[in-house]
Each structure stands twice: as C-alpha cells, then as structure tokens.
Amino acid sequence: MSPEAQAILQDWSPPKGINLTLGFITLVYLRGWFSLRRSIRGANWKLAAFASGVFSLWIAIGSPLSAFDESALTIHMIQHLLLMLVVPPLILLGAPAMPLLHGLPQWFVRRGLAPLLRLRWLRHLGDFVTHPVVCLLLSSITMIAWHIPSAFEFALQSERWHEVEHASFLATSILLWWPVVQPFPSESRWIRWSIPAYLFFAMIPGGILGAFLAFCDRVLYPSYNAAPRVLGLSPLSDQIVAGVLMWVLGTFVFVVPAVIIVMQLLSPARHSSPGIR
C-alpha cells in the first residue's frame, strides 16, 4: 500500500451513524424473517439477497472504500455502481416489505405506519413513482445530472451534498429496479414481456456516460488532478478506467436479467404455490 493510501486510511474513521442504521435495518429484517420464514417461498434465498444487498451498501458508504472516493475516480465509480446496480436489485429480491413490517414493534406499525400507509394521496404518489416510465426517467436524470462536472465537483467539496448524491442514486435506482424485480406485495404495471425492452432503455444512459468518460481526451473533474494517486494511475487513465467500468459492468448487469426474464417467459408455465412470495 502506498504512503498516500496509508495516510488516507489513518485519517478515515468509520461512519457510526451509517453502520448503526444498517445494523438496525438488518436486525429488524431478521426478526420479521424468522416470524414469517415458513410462509415465505424461497425464504433462504430472500434472506441471502437482502443480506448481500445490505453488505454491498456497507461496502459502498460505510467501509474503508469510501475513504478513497475523493482520491480516485475509479473508486468513486465503484461506489456509484454499487449504489445503482448492485444494492437495489439485491434489496428488492429480499422482498423486504413484509419482514420489515413484522420485524418492527407492532404497536409502532399499528399506530404509526398503518395510518400513514392508508393515506390516499400517499398511495397515489407510490403508484406514480413506481410507474416504469417514471422510474426510468428519474434514475436516468439523476445519474446524468450528478455526473455533470459542476455538480460532481460540488458534491466532492461538500460532505452533506455528497451524502445527498449517494442517497439520490440509491433511491432512484431502487425505483429503476422496482418494475424488474416487482417485490411482493407490489403488482406489475406492465406485461412481463416489456421488461427486457425496459432494461435495454435503462442501459443506454449509463452506457453513453461511461463511453464518454472512457474516450474523453481531458480530465472532466479537476479535483482528481490534485488528488494523491492511490491507484498509481494518471488522472486521465483513472477516468478511462472509471468510464470502462461504468460502460461494461452496466451493460452486463442489465443484459443478464433481461436474458433470464426472456428464458422464464419462454419456459413452460409453473403453478405458484400459495404464500408470501
């Protein structure tokens, strides 16, 4: 490890708030999962998916990896890809709604959450933001907007806005993956055959942005010109690697579920057994 990297790690301290929050969410999910596991189809797989999603989220924003996001665009891009492409589908595959509701104290669910969830305007808002077109637009606009050099630099200079940037990536990417995973107890808004096309269009913004970063002949984010070279790469080479990661990994992550969905649709229909999905 380079002296620069060692110095960065020495100055870094674990984010207690993030770690406590992730630990609390995991414990609530586990409590609900244990009470429902006999009625959840594929309960073990859902638990593994949710735990993997929370662990990936910790790697992105709570692990020592986050100490280097201001030193290398490649590391910063790994953070963004985890938040946009890895964490959301894993969390949603864990079907978290029912385990989380059953894991919380029931007096809190009955007196606090239940009246809130019954609000008509809130249900209408939920129906609106989970419409596939809205999901696609919100996630694409958020990703592109935060990678505009002025916005990216602004987030780098402000810890508060950096957190807002990451939160917006995570929130809009959960919406992006919502129509694909369709976590229980939500209902599909489009026919399943349309989802591969949806994934194709979802892949385009990241592919274009990644290609632009990879082929641009100048450093787009000036902060990395003065940053310590913890990866041993020049700022331009660092940008190229980050762009290739976004381009290639983004393409792979969207193509794989599209192929899986097509194969499922072409396979003989299977009768689903009753119970929580």
Regarding quaternary structure, what we see is single chain
- Count of runs of 4 or more consecutive helical residues: 12
Shape: globular
Beta-strand fraction estimate:
under 5%
Helix content: over 70%
The Cα radius of gyration reads 20 Å
First and last CA, distance: 46 Å
Unreliable runs, pLDDT <50, ≥5 residues? 271-276
Topology (elements, then pairings):
Blueprint: H1 3-11, H2 16-36, H3 43-61, H4 73-93, H5 97-103, H6 106-117, H7 120-129, H8 132-146, H9 149-157, H10 159-181, H11 195-215, H12 235-266
Helix pairs in contact: 2-3, 2-5, 3-4, 4-10, 4-12, 8-10, 8-11, 9-10, 11-12
Describe what this molecule looks like in 3D.
This protein has one domain. Helix content is 72%, strand content 0%. It contains 12 helices and no strands. It is globular. Residues 271-276 have low confidence and may be disordered.
Give a quick precis of the structure.
By secondary structure, the protein is mainly alpha-helical. It contains twelve helices and no strands. It has one domain.
Core attributes:
277 residues
